[in-house]
Structure formats: C-alpha cells, structure tokens
Specification:
There is one protein chain. Helix content is 13%, strand content 25%. It has four helices and 13 strands. The termini are close together. The mean pLDDT is 96. The strands form three sheets. A nine-stranded mixed beta sheet has the order 1-13-11-5-7-9-10-4-12, covered by helices on one side. Strands 2-3 form a two-stranded antiparallel sheet.
Length: 218
C-alpha cells in the first residue's frame, strides 16, 4: 500500500516575511503570554494580533481583486480549491509564459481544472529581485487557460503578471482563482496530485492568505 504524503506549499508568515513593494510589513503583536506573571490568580494565555495585507505570502486572489462585480473571497466556490491538480514545469529561461508553452497540456488541463506552474522562482524567495524580475503569464496564455475550463491557477511567483495586468484581468474576469507565492514545488515528483488551498472567509474582500498543501502518492 502506497502511503500518501503531504507537502506544505506555503511560506511562513512572520515579521520577516517579504511583502510586495509598497505594502506594510507584517506585524504580529503579542497581546498576552503565559510567561507573564499572574496576579491574584488570573490566568494568562498566549494571544496575538496579526496586521498584514491580504496578499502577503502564499495567498489567493478572488475575482473581486480586479473585477468590480466579481466574487469576493468569502463567495468563492471551495470545490475549486480542493482536488486533482496538474503540475506544469516551466523551463528556467522562460520570462513570459505564452500559449505555445501551455498548448501541449491542453487535453490534461481540460480534465484537471486546476493547474500549478512550477517556474522554479520559489527558490528565490527573499532575494532582492524576487518581486521585480519574476516570470509572467501573457494575456493570451491566461485566456487560453480560461478557455480550457481551468478554475484555479497556482504560481510560485509573487504575481501572474505586471502592469497593465492583462493576465489578472483575463483570469479573474473568467472566474478563476489565483494562488500566488507557492513554495516547495520541487518536492512534488508527480504530474498529478491533490491540492488543498482554502482561503479565510473574509467578508466582501479581495483575497486571503491560504495554507496550500499537496497530497501525493496513493
């Protein structure tokens, strides 16, 4: 019997987590701690408060992020966040992922409905050029994914594109969910695997941190 293995695809969230240029640093404020001296029998517990952009670290973009009347993160279809996913390796010298790179996977995309693009950029997490020199997805490639019925796209880069955001507009406008800043993709040695990447139920907002997990084997 093959043992199923779980691989954490999420980056750690801390005060040192790299943030998108222009975003405030992550702040974790300790509001109580068991190490504090108790007075008159009071009970201390470990409690904290988190202040961060919803697009920090490994996170999901809801359609509302770019589309005025798109689904907010609390309204996304969770069935798109869990299930079989297709891993597509991207050659390391590719700076723009265009249709010819994805076309050979067309039939498998139509079956999987979830796809992860492994560009290898996750290895540069924390490097000075991580947010500025990453590979991008062309608008045509984004529309190609929409046409194949893909419902979730995951990438190991901080964004699927740059200004003027053709890929974001095509993907989110087509109702796709985008998961950015995935980690540890090199640990997945399978073309197909099960993905779990569910967001927090934040009312009416544009995105959420996720704890993304790959389940392989079995």
């Amino acid at each position: 019997m093959t043992v199923r293995r779980m691989i954490d695809l999420s980056h750690t969230v801390s005060a040192e987590t790299p943030v998108f240029p222009g975003d405030a640093a992550v702040e974790i404020l300790v509001t109580d701690a068991t190490s504090r001296a108790s007075v008159a029998g009071e009970r201390h517990m470990n409690c904290s408060r988190l202040n961060t952009s919803l697009h920090t670290g490994t996170h999901m973009d809801a359609p509302f992020h770019f589309i005025h009347d798109g689904a907010s993160i609390d309204r996304v279809d969770l069935t798109h966040c869990i299930g079989p996913s297709l891993m597509i390796p991207i050659p390391p010298d590719v700076h723009e992922i265009d249709v010819p790179i994805l076309a050979p996977w067309q039939n498998k995309l139509r079956v999987a409905h979830r796809v992860i693009l492994n560009t290898g950029w996750h290895r540069r997490w924390g490097e000075p050029d991580y947010f500025t020199a990453h590979p991008v997805i062309s608008g045509d490639a984004a529309r190609f994914l929409v046409d194949q019925g893909v419902r979730l796209l995951g990438v190991d880069t901080p964004s699927v594109d740059r200004d003027p955001y053709d890929a974001h507009l095509a993907l989110l406008g087509g109702g796709l969910l985008i998961v950015e800043n995935l980690a540890n993709l090199d640990q997945i040695h399978a073309e197909l695997f099960d993905l779990v990447a569910t967001p927090l139920r934040i009312l009416g907002r544009d995105g959420s941190p996720v704890r993304a997990v790959a389940i392989v084997g079995g």
